[in-house]
Amino acid sequence: MEIQIKNLCKKFNEKSIFMNFDFKFRSSRRYALCGPNGSGKTTLLKLMCDLVKEDDGEIKFTNKNSSISYINSDTRTFFQRLSPVDNLYFFGSINGMSKTQVRRAIEEDFKDFNITSFMDMPLSNLSLGQVQIINVVRGFLIQPDVLLCDEIFANLDEKNAKNLILFLDKYKAKKDLIEIYTSHNKDFLKNFCDEEIFL
């Protein structure tokens, strides 16, 4: 599987973010998007998952049935009065999943992150790091073929960051996918990813 980007152009308020940008992402690789604030890292991820529309150019997936998951560090997209499980039931239902399917999908993930103790607590009672883990679990409900990760290690302590790396490695070992990451930790990206892209 590949994602082919050709002549991509995008402006915001007459400011050019991308001008004839070309790149080819290949499966089984982890990519690091690097660049200063405002260079277009988040914009590129949003363009790839159709949250933002390009002005010109093409983003082509060789596998048109690829499932795409965009995960960021924004925890405001959850229902704060509901538990993690009920939130995941809701977001799973948007993707046509039954409660049984969601429960089966998340039980192992909750064990991997050792978070079964607060599965049924109101989300408002959890720390930002705990909610970020739920954010990651939500992103994997659809078993993505393309993983777009925008600062997903934000708000995580050292233990949960290590658990997340193990979780990502475990998923990569069982599925051929494209992974793209942004992070303010440049050293981490360099060591974690296979290839760096400077915007």
Brief account:
The chain has 6 helices and 8 strands; from the N terminus they run E-E-E-H-E-E-H-H-H-E-H-E-H-E.
Please tell me about this protein's structure.
There is one protein chain. The protein contains six helices and eight strands; from the N terminus they run βββαββαααβαβαβ. It has helices at 41-48, 84-94, 99-112, 128-139, 158-174, 186-192, and strands spanning 2-12, 15-26, 29-34, 56-61, 68-71, 146-150, 178-182, 195-198. It is of the alpha/beta class and 199 residues long. The strands form two sheets. It has a five-stranded parallel sheet, sandwiched between helices. A three-stranded antiparallel sheet has the order 2-1-4, with helices on one face. Helix 2 crosses helix 3 and helix 2 (84-94) runs parallel beside helix 4.
Order of H and E elements = EEEHEEHHHEHEHE
Strand order of the largest sheet: 5-6-7-3-8
- What is the number of beta strands? 8
Describe the oligomeric state of these chains in a short phrase.
Answer: single chain
Class by helix and strand content? alpha/beta
- Summarize model confidence as the mean pLDDT: 93
Segments where pLDDT lies below 50 for 5+ residues?
none
Radius of gyration: 17 Å
Distance between the termini: 23 Å
In percent, how helical is the residue content? 25-40%
Overall morphology: globular
Number of helices: 6
Portion in beta strands: 25-35%
Main sheet characteristics: 5 strands, parallel
